[in-house]
Amino acid sequence: MRKSTFLKGTFTLAALALTLGAFTGCDKNGGGSATEIIVGEFASLTGKEATFGGSSHEGTLLAIEELNAAGGVLGKKIKLITEDNQSKAGESATVVNKLISKNGAVAILGEVASSRSLEAAPICQSNGVPMISPSSTNPKVTETGNFIFRVCFIDPFQGTVMANFATKTLKAKKVAVFTDVKSDYSKGLAKYFKEGFTKAGGQIVSELDFNGGDKDFKGQLTTIKAANPDGVFVPGYYTDAALICIQAKEIGLNVPLFGGDGWESDTLTKLGKEAVEGNYFSTHYAPDVATDLSKKFVADYKKRFNGKLPDAMAALGYDSAMILADAMKRAGTTDGAKVRDALAVTKDFPAVAGNITINEKRDAVKAAVILKIEGGKFKFVETVNP
Length: 386
Ligand code: PHE
Description:
five-stranded parallel β-sheet; 12 strands; Rossmann fold; 17% strand; binds phenylalanine; 13 helices; seven-stranded mixed β-sheet
């Protein structure tokens, strides 16, 4: 008697779990319901770096829509669940935990900013859920573990690219470096730039710090000016970079300022106006140097998002979703470990921001582009191969 009640109870629980699973699409091993694959995305849709999250999300969404329109993956539609971390420290861990444990996401796409990818990566790693960062460039992101991948180059490369650009194109001999100490991206890129620039024979004449979100940079800029540099490297994000360019002009520091991919946002030109003109930054992709694949992407993106031109984050967001779908197809399952194995052997995948080969560190080996700010637009200057 007792036994049968126990069994009955077990059955009821199992049935309940199955029903709940079907309702929420939550099935850790199978990856979604019978008809859907749940993919989680975390992004800075609001807050300080909202243009990063917005662009990246739009690219990702476009890819998922195209995949679903073509029949989906493994006979199922992909359901993208996107969570906003508001550009705030601490939030990425919360939302990624939710995406995995509550929504049952079988893979995670995100983030743009390295510090936020670094928050989520240990969670994905310990849950055995593959994570693909579209555009975080700090080396530590994929060093977190074997479930963490990215579809972009890393900052030791980007730093060297800008160091060579400073020496060869700007003909700079003395450079100041102005770093956001709140950002893993900024600290890393500053370090790699300095190494590259000194190796190329240049001299770092001033090294100063700021905190992302600061409003007044004049004190540090005055110290930098006194060191008489030929240029200032600012490895920060676009809002800070724009304010730094404005205040540099105000104190009469009239040398080129240049940065990395963190500068890429139309907010840089809207906020910085003439103060950012003539300055340079490196990034992943330029819509005006298009392959057939990226031409199609630019056209589709413009059609989907009211004529807007895709930036690097949009292109890489798109690529991150496409490479995940490709790995799931090759794995023949959404099982985390098997998708991980398939991602790890990605080779020459045709992607809109340049073909992707994943190396043994789970990073993509790709070219960088340098853009110049001219007439409020970003003008392609050159491509630098790894
Ligand atoms: N690479 C930056 C980071 O790691 C983010 C970024 C990517 C910014 C692409 C702009 C374009 O934090």
